[in-house]
Write a structure and sequence with these properties.
The complex is a heterodimer of chains A (469) and B (202). Chain A has 6 helices and 19 strands. Chain A is mainly beta. The chains are: A mainly beta (469), B mainly alpha (202).
Chain lengths: 469, 202
């Protein structure tokens, strides 16, 4: 990584840069052979078992995805500054997921009251993605994912993180400073204990019901926003980031301009102004161990839209969260634990006034704790516990949601377990067998939706083939 | 007040965006910011997955970097990490990095299991005649400091050393034939752990 003397150019770049679009922010896939092609490293250098990052993998990302060991197209200016640094071979890669999903009870068929939808669902692909992931210019790299989603049958922009990073000396300690432009709060994070890349909860089937309620920072904004944040990684241990997000919706067409904007009342949940985002974390590394503790959060003022003009009364969401991760990275044995707790305070002035919420304010708490073990990076097992609890609100959660997705008890509460067995015959191929158990789903255990479905009816057997190349 | 403003000025000045420097500066930057991500900023790695390089014999570092570049050293970690890292290094950079690490202060030894260490000391100093294992000290030096292209072993991570001995025995690491023939071929795992514990403590 060479010195970059063009600080003014850097500021101009950052000031002028707008994060790219996103529509689908689906299951994560930060492990990409693009980086392998650019760096020449085997997957194990940066990952325990993809997508979880090793300490080295975290530093690779914090440095802007730029570390490379391949031939470059390059040139310099007459003032001996780097003017171009492009990989000869673009760091492109692909991801393909195929899956089999079975829920304990087949879903009702929505069009025929007494019919059942097909169980034992096969998806081929469930999801497929193309990545450009790697260096774009000196000190500037990106992770850009374009995903084919089987539900929409189309391609869209998925997780995207473009960043500039460089080094400076702060109080005598080497410090990375960087700027990231991205479309999903926590996609830019390097620990697997925050929502975007949280293991072992990252892989979910696309063919089974999931609980309805989740906090805003817990993936709800992904793909609908563009954010810019600045970070420092001080003395290889302390991370601080501050940024803000603004609505940037994919697939929106303004009926007057016939173009992609501006957003108006035909959109819904539009951020008023900007939504600040913050993140602090500290990592201790000793011998084969890595322990990190952190906090993160988001505050968003949402204009409901959806027929109402984008002005006036808002719903205000304040998310504050804690997270922790521990990893043991042995030669034969890998073990890691991740946990996060998100507290969301919802001040629903707009929804309450409109009768969409029964309470003027609600809370929603999410907790996840999971661990995984791998033997020789080939055979693995994971276990996780998840729970969401929140205010009862007959406006937000009710049986009007319909079979499977509604809540007859007007409650967002859900909890359960995930157990998984993994087999990686090669470092870039993973087969997973996952079982999810719901003790509670959308506020109830038996007949939670008012149409006779029990929480355990959503218990899911999920077989996943995930290949990256 | 005066000292406060001086402190602030010093702090601001210390936010020095990188400046072009001498070849030595560039080497130090490469070593600390790139190699250092695994090997430690000054070659004193925290993880025993990555060998300590501080104070290592420069001829040995050069030979290994060239072996990674030529892919003649092919143990698993070499393939996963070092083939890539060394692939684009030129001879001058390799020599400069070797010189950088040679100049770093080697880490102090870490005491290990007492029984293993005692056993290891005997193997290190006298070898194991009945198993045709040479005394390590006859090449690596009485203080395990190494010489020329023979590496310093003193203070190295014991698990890393054991792995190398295992790889020499199985020939997964084949860039030092003497290590297989005269040492590794006949040592048991426990004997490897013993001698590694001994030199790691020096």
């Amino acid at each position: 990584m060479l010195c970059n003397q063009r600080m003014r150019a850097w500021f101009a770049l950052v000031a002028g840069f707008v994060a790219v679009s996103a529509l689908l922010v689906s299951s994560d896939a930060s492990a990409v052979p693009s980086f392998g092609r650019q760096t020449g490293f085997a997957c194990e250098a940066c990952h325990t078992a993809f997508p979880e990052l090793t300490p080295f993998g975290r530093r690779f990302k914090l440095n802007g995805y730029v570390l490379d060991n391949m031939q470059q197209v390059k040139t310099i200016t007459a003032q001996n500054e780097e003017a171009l640094l492009l990989n000869y071979i673009p760091p492109l890669s692909l991801m393909f997921q195929a899956s089999y999903t079975r829920t304990k009870a087949a879903l009702p068929d929505v069009t025929l009251p007494d019919g059942l939808a097909q169980n034992n669902q096969v998806l081929f692909p469930q999801q497929a993605s193309l990545f450009y992931a790697g260096r774009i210019a000196p000190n500037f790299g990106g992770f850009i994912q374009i995903t084919y989603d089987s539900a929409s049958g189309s391609f869209g922009f998925d997780n995207t993180d473009l960043r500039y990073a460089n080094h400076m000396s702060l109080a005598g300690k080497d410090t990375i400073f960087g700027v990231t432009a991205n479309n999903n709060p926590t996609v830019q994070d390097v620990w697997n204990s925050t929502p975007a890349w949280q293991t072992p909860f990252d892989q979910r089937t696309s063919a089974a019901p999931v609980p309805a309620a989740s906090a805003l920072v817990d993936g709800s904004l992904g793909g609908d926003v563009a954010g810019l944040s600045a970070y420092l990684w001080f003395n290889d241990a302390f991370y601080v980031e501050l940024g803000a997000y603004r609505s940037a919706k994919q697939g929106f067409q303004n009926p007057q301009t016939q173009n992609a904007g501006p957003l108006n009342s035909t959109a819904s949940n539009v951020i008023d102004g900007v939504a600040p985002y913050w993140r602090l974390a500290y990592e201790w590394d000793w011998n084969r161990n890595a322990l990190s503790l952190g906090t993160y959060g988001l505050e968003a003022r949402l204009l409901p839209g959806n027929g109402i003009a984008l002005a006036g009364s808002i719903n205000r969401f304040t998310d504050t969260a804690l997270d922790a991760q521990y990893q043991y990275l042995g030669d034969d044995h890998l073990f890691s634990v991740q946990t996060t707790w998100i507290h969301e305070k919802q001040r629903l002035d707009a929804s309450f006034a409109a009768g969409a919420a029964a309470n003027p304010s609600d809370t929603l708490n999410t907790f996840r704790l999971g661990g995984s073990y791998y033997y020789r990076r080939r055979y693995g097992a994971a276990l996780g516990y998840f729970t969401t609890t929140g205010s009862t609100d007959a406006g937000l959660y009710n049986a009007g949601g319909g079979p499977v997705t509604g809540s007859v008890n007007n409650s967002p509460d859900s909890r359960g377990w995930v157990a998984e067995l993994d087999y990686l015959p090669w470092q870039n191929v993973k087969f997973a067998l996952q079982y999810t158990i719901y003790n509670k789903f959308n506020g109830g255990t038996s007949n939670y939706d008012g149409f006779g479905r029990n929480a355990s009816d959503n218990n899911t057997v999920y077989l996943l083939a995930w290949i990256n190349f | 007040m005066k000292s406060a403003s001086l402190t602030i000025a010093a702090a601001l000045l210390s936010i020095a965006f990188c400046t072009p420097g001498s070849a030595a500066d560039k080497t130090a930057e490469l070593a600390s910011r790139t190699c250092g991500l695994c090997h430690g900023a000054k070659g004193d790695s925290t993880s025993s997955a990555f060998p300590r390089l501080a104070g290592q014999q420069p001829a040995y570092v050069e030979a290994q970097l060239k072996a990674f570049r030529a892919q003649t050293r092919g143990d698993p970690a070499a393939q996963a990490y070092m083939w890539a890292m060394a692939s684009r290094l030129d001879d001058q950079t390799i020599a400069d990095l070797a010189g950088f690490y040679a100049a770093q202060k080697p880490a102090a030894g870490v005491p290990g299991d007492a029984t293993l260490t005692t056993e290891g000391k005997s193997i290190y100093e006298k070898g194991i005649a009945e198993q045709k294992v040479l005394a390590c000290g006859s090449c690596h030096g009485p203080a395990a400091e190494g010489k020329d292209a023979i590496p310093r072993l003193a203070g190295q991570h014991a698990p890393y050393l054991v792995k190398q001995l295992v790889y020499f025995k199985s020939l997964l690491r084949a860039n030092a034939p003497i290590m297989h023939a005269a040492v590794g071929e006949n040592m048991t795992l426990r004997q490897m752990e013993a001698v590694a514990a001994y030199v790691a403590s020096k």
